[in-house]
Amino acid sequence: MRRCSLSDGLLFLLDVAGLTPFRILPLLLPAAFLVVALVFWLPELTALLDNTYLGSFKASFIGILLEAMPFVLLGALLSSLLSVFIPDALISRWIPRRPVPALLFACLLGILFPVCECGMIPLVRRLIHKGMPVYVAIVFILSGPIVNPVVYGATLTAFRTHPELVYARMGLAFIVACLIGLIIYVTVRKSPLRLSIKSLNEETHRQDTRGGKLTAVFVHTADEFFEMGKYLIIGCLLTSAIQTFMVRESLAAAFDRPLGAYVFMMGLAFVLSLCSTSDAFVAATFLHTFPAGSLLAFMVLGPMLDFKNSLMLLSLFKTKFALYLFFLILACVFVGSVLMSVWL
Amino acid sequence: MSEARVIRLHYLLRAALLLAFALYIAHLAQQDTLHYYIAPKLARWVRLCPVPLALMALALAVQAFYGKGSALCDCEHRLPRSFVKSTALYSLFLFPLLLGFLLPDQALGSLAADKKGIILSNLGDGHPEASAFDTSDPYQQEFAELARQLYAQPVIPVYPAIFSETFGAIDRYKQQFEGKDIAVTGFLYRDGTHTDPASFAVSRFLVQCCTADATPFGMLVEADTTISLPNDTWVEVRGKLQIADYQGQEVIRIKAVSVTPVSAPSTPYIYTSPDSIAAWHQLLAAQEAAKMAK
Q1: What is the CATH number of the domain that holds B235?
Q2: Which part of the chain is the DUF1980 domain (chain B) (predicted)?
Q3: Are residues B200 and B69 in the same domain?
Q4: Structural domain harbouring B256
Q5: Residues 230-259 of B with CB under 8 A from A
Q6: Where does chain A have alpha helices with state H?
Q7: How do residues A85-115 score in pLDDT, each as one tens digit?
Q8: How far is B71 from chain A, CA to nearest CA, in Å?
């Protein structure tokens, strides 16, 4: 076993720099690119600064990223606290064994943990590894971002004149989540997870981490942050590009048919990747253009499935299962909101 | 190079990136430019983010320098394995930092208003209230009360703190407000299809959470003379309220008496107010106090 000290660490740095330049090349390359790019672009930078498109792009990109940051950090921190402090057996003991009470339990979990959908995935992954059945986890992922007091309040504020739409949103989200949970309970038997962590391994490593459990918590949090962060950043890039270049009104006109409105609003929910606490306000601006049912589809689909969280789901589950899940969500939300529109 | 060393190097790079994120957010908070991106209620939480980010960076650095070799097993297989993957991953995280540090903070303007579609009237159900400042709907009470307060003013002021509520109140009671004097500040926005240089909208972005959900609100303005100011210029418009027809929709319009360029406000966006009536009384009281001081 090697001795560990500061000098050891420094030695290792020198070692790396002196002996194996080729091996560290991949890691230094981004920095090298940066320097070259800066040198070449610097004269043109002033021209770039004037570009209103770039300014608009930056405003929405950084906006979405900063908005998601507290939630991602919270999710990562909770997940890592779970992994370090809560023994595996505890969680599986809390979850009811029979499917129907388990589904209801998962819906209630959303009320207790009002975490935005971006913070949900790392937390859920950890819960699955701790023994939560996959169908219960899916219900939690789907209902958590909608069926909670914060989102209820925000939706009520946005639709003060149409309170029935608020109840419809909560109800439909609840029904869709439970239905999908049941379908998955019946149809999926094998573990759909992309990678399986051996909890035994973790147990032995935990003792070895320097600085005790506290360091372990933050190292785990950082792992989660980088794991989810890459999907978050790609999602933000796509979303803000669409926000900057897509003209909403002309697109809306193209879909001005009875069911076209549903397709358009669901597509919009997917590409805009809004936070579930603010999407109701955006939906409210379409109140006079589109039928209420399509707004419902927008508000239920968005938190369940959008650019950034579909990428995260793809990282959590095997591709086949993730696509199956996307199909179920789209189908249930579409059919559900069309049916609900009869009462609205 | 042994596996443990690769992991140490990854950890150091990650620590540096996390620290840079923490510094960027702290920098925004210190420069008071967070409000270019997110609403105040969310900014509270974002301001706390540098703390966990810095702690994560510290924990990773401790691991990289002092961690035992055996503890540094990449047991969850989460570190990128290849040249290309590592480059891609860390470039991706560098991108927002570069964008953040190199480009100036700039608020959304006419371009975004064009893409999102400006809102000139926000009556969801399409029927303006007929009777004077009265409503049977309990949800509309706040607007009715605000409308009553606004109507009592000789010149209706549009305070940024209650911009969207004021807009909503006037919009709902258009008929009553017709002919009243108003003074409003916003950025100048011309519709791409609207070519008349004497007509534009004085607009603001309403932000609920972050810039992704920013919604442009505007009041149409009709001036007697051609306004040669470019888009996105901040202007104060004074004039009389009218009702106009815009693309088949009844909207409010200001018949401008004066259009004066002003300096951009420190907070470019507007936010919803939890209690616009209380905010209105506070604003009035503050104004009275300012007058007394003079």
Answers
A1: 2.40.50.140
A2: 13-118, 135-271
A3: no
A4: 110-293
A5: none
A6: 6-19, 21-50, 52-85, 88-94, 99-112, 117-129, 134-143, 149-158, 163-187, 199-208, 212-245, 248-254, 260-272, 279-284, 292-304, 307-316, 319-340
A7: 877 677 777 777 788 888 888 887 777 766 6
A8: 5
